[in-house]
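Service request form, structural biology core

Requester: graduate student, group of Dr. S.
Request type: structure prediction, single chain
Budget code: on file
Notes: please return the result as structure tokens.

Sequence provided:
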Amino acid sequence: MSAHPPAALWPQDLARRRDRAQLSLRACRLCPRDCGVDRHAGPTGAWCRLGADAYAYKELLSHGEEACIGPTWLIDLSGCSLRCLFCTEWAHITQPMAAPAVPLRSGWFLRRLAHHIGQGARSLSFVGGEPTVNLAAVLSVLADVPPASQLPIVWNSNGLVGEDAWPLLTDVVRTWLIDLKVSTASAATQMLGAGDLDYGARVRDTLDRVHPATPPLLTDPARGLPTLIIRHLLMPGALASETLPLLHEIAQRWPHAVVNLMTMYLPFGPALKQLPAMPALRTLLPPNERDQAIGVARQLGLHLLVDGR
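Core staff response, request fulfilled:
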């Protein structure tokens, strides 16, 4: 059994943030969709299809995330601000309240947190779906956690953070884990369901805000978790148009990020049926594209992980 983490890792005003987040749901702008919906009245009109509650559809102590944050207690929350056609969690973002999802409540959360600390959890990862659309409920359970049980928080996000969410998340999140999915606006429209949302501008703004001033210390895990991890999923046929431009941009704009190239793309979800003009996405990643992407990332001197290692 591992020792408890140090006391008071989180801000002391979580109760105030919880109340502010609940108030923000009256005209929700937690994500850049800016729906303005009263989610206390229900999910009607909300892009995320959520009311005031968050729903956890899976939780586990994961050894499969990036080595620099694990083992981590991973909590999957349903609902999202995107509709990625290759999404492996499609059912949980389009029907966020459906079984096996259960409402996120403090009693359950505290019991599972104690269990996973006892099993050696090094961090607490909120993922989805998209955790930012669930922020009000997350803060509600965090506000009830005693200081001795506070773990560093990993915010595993698509990077679409609304203006109302920033002051609520500041100093709560230890590691920002951002999925930087595509480079071009056309790919954001075709593959991510971005619609009239400027995906590129919004995710780049998030990365600019959270990019650290110093490089990560991946060789010394005892010094703590990295501030920023950028994940990029290599997709078949997208090397030249999406991946390589992003790698060069990361090297220039966010050089102190840890970069995790994920190479195990699988054609899930609507990608199998709804992309007749993009047949490559219905295949597996060619080995030569994987090797070229890794080679370029190394040449650029990125703080590189491949599939989390």
